[in-house]
Write a structure and sequence with these properties.
The chain has 509 residues and is mainly α. The chain has three domains: 207 residues, no CATH class; 155 residues, no CATH class; 93 residues, no CATH class. It is built from 22 helices and no strands. The chain is flat.
Length: 509
């Protein structure tokens, strides 16, 4: 006991942090165990934010802390709208920034912030084990007086006498007997629940007690004699003449591809025999994005600030022309993907492809702006990081699944060829978000002439409504989006008879 006391004195904030962890475990058990996650995730993240604030004694006057707190609250707001990996990532990134905000002034630049987050994740995975080892070492030091035998003997009388009196009272008073029996009948928690508590503690502890590697470590020692040779090789490989020749060849090759896309995609020229527009679109979409990424990497390496090629006006002009053609190619990739989607269907991966292509185009433009304005590499990273974060954060509030279901159902209804048929299995994977689109789809009069298909669609709708109702039986599973969805489904649900009328026709109410 005395050893533990002295170990706690060596880490005075440790009891507070252990208490915060205990509160978080109790809250997680109430909010998550054997429950469907929903708005409970946002509540827990807010509680964890308060725990991080208290355990690390943060101050609102620190600009880094204010920025991290705003990012955390923005992530919690996204969790209130809908629980997803994207909204959870924003909230966790904000919490990691908040837990480490008092460690370095990263608010002035984005590169230290990214380094801080990387080190937090790297060390946070092992932080509970590391702290347990540190605490065990503190116990072994035994800086206090040894526990004497007399101290243990002093507990024999009070404990023994109390047990005797408890037995006598239980024999004399049936109420006390019932209390003691109830204590004996308390069921121990099942192993799965105890394991859940350990998982919660393992996840929360790095935020409560963050420990990061010190900045400014010495880089590994290397032979100075190798520097001139390496620098000379880079200068030869990316000399002004080599870059000039490369840019001339690249512009010519990209011009050919741009002309072909203009001819077949926008000009309406007939494709070669045996090739459809869907095949042409699908084969070229993703390779062109890879080409754009390689072009961006080449420009970043070849047009380094202060390099010889960056100072040649004609080379800069060729770079501008090449990047402009690359942006056009990315636009063609988006167009190709759109053609493929119009023939087949929309999926989450194809939506992600659209977003990724748009971000690549923005990145290319930012590279040109960096070259034209003479900005640093940190500026380029900051612009692209903020752009990506803004776009992804907006998608936290967009019902992508509902939009996919609406697009696929509307296009399948208007289609005339078999390959346009709707994939009901994928609609079911989307989940209850597809219900408004299914209701509008069932209202179509042309479905009356397709009783078998109508039966399958109606059965799918009923299954999704059952999932939505199951989710809303517990307030913890609510989100603002699911609440709006339930209202919309309740107001727009269309009843279709399970059995056809006598005349054989189908009726839609």
């Amino acid at each position: 006991m005395m050893q533990a006391v002295h170990a706690v004195r060596a880490y005075p904030r440790l009891p507070h942090k252990v208490g915060v962890a205990a509160v978080l475990i109790i809250a997680a058990d109430f909010l998550f165990y054997d429950r469907i996650p929903g708005i409970s995730v946002a509540f827990f993240m807010l509680l964890l934010t308060g725990g991080v604030w208290y355990a690390n004694r943060l101050q609102l006057g620190d600009p880094a802390t204010r920025s991290a707190l705003m990012l955390t609250l923005a992530g919690c707001l996204a969790l209130v709208e809908n629980v997803s990996w994207l909204s959870g990532a924003f909230a966790l990134a904000g919490l990691a920034s908040l837990a480490t905000s008092h460690r370095a002034c990263w608010h002035r630049d984005n590169v230290p912030w990214l380094q801080m987050l990387f080190r937090f994740v790297k060390r946070g995975l092992l932080q509970p084990f590391r702290d347990s080892r540190i605490y065990r070492k503190a116990l072994k030091k035994n800086r206090g007086a040894p526990i004497r035998k007399q101290q243990l003997i002093a507990w024999v009388l009070p404990v023994g006498a109390s047990l005797v009196f408890a037995a006598l009272f239980a024999d004399a008073n049936p109420i006390v007997a019932d209390w003691l029996a109830a204590i004996g009948d308390i069921d121990l928690p099942e192993p799965g629940r105890v394991f859940f508590w350990f998982i919660v503690a393992f996840i929360c502890w790095p935020f409560i007690r963050p420990r990061l590697a010190r900045f400014g470590r010495m880089s590994p020692t290397f032979n100075p004699n190798l520097v001139p040779a390496a620098a000379s090789m880079i200068d030869i490989l990316f000399s002004a003449n080599a870059i000039l020749r490369s840019l001339i060849a690249f512009n010519a090759m990209f011009a050919v591809q741009t002309v072909l896309d203009a001819t077949y995609l926008w000009g309406g020229q007939a494709l070669p025999h045996g090739m459809t527009y869907a095949q042409y679109a699908h084969r070229g979409a993703y390779p062109l994005v890879a080409v754009a990424l390689l072009a961006a990497a080449f420009v970043l390496v070849a047009m380094r600030p202060g390099s010889e090629s960056a100072r040649v006006p004609f080379i800069r002009l060729l770079v501008y022309a090449w990047v402009a053609q690359t942006v056009v190619l990315v636009g063609a990739s988006i167009w190709r993907t759109g053609l493929y989607v119009s023939v087949y269907s929309l999926t989450y991966l194809r939506v992600a492809a659209f977003v990724w292509m748009a971000l690549v185009a923005i990145g290319l433009v930012s590279i040109v702006l960096r070259l034209a304005w003479g900005k640093s590499g940190a500026w380029l990273i900051k612009v692209n990081m903020l752009t990506a974060m803004a776009v992804l954060y907006i998608f936290c509030f967009i019902d992508v699944g509902g939009a996919i279901a609406r697009y696929n159902l509307e296009h399948s209804r208007a289609a005339t060829t078999p390959e346009h048929s709707i994939d009901l299995d994928y609609i079911e994977e989307i989940g209850p978000a597809a219900l408004p689109a299914l209701n509008r789809y069932l209202e179509a009069s042309d479905l009356i002439r397709q009783p078998v298909h109508l039966m399958f669609v109606r059965s799918l709708r009923n299954r999704l409504e059952a999932k939505l109702a199951e989710r809303h039986r517990d307030w913890r599973a609510y989100t603002f989006r699911s609440y709006r969805l339930a209202l919309e489904v309740a107001n727009s649900r269309t009843e279709i008879y399970d059995n056809p009328p006598v005349d054989g026709g189908w009726s839609v109410e």
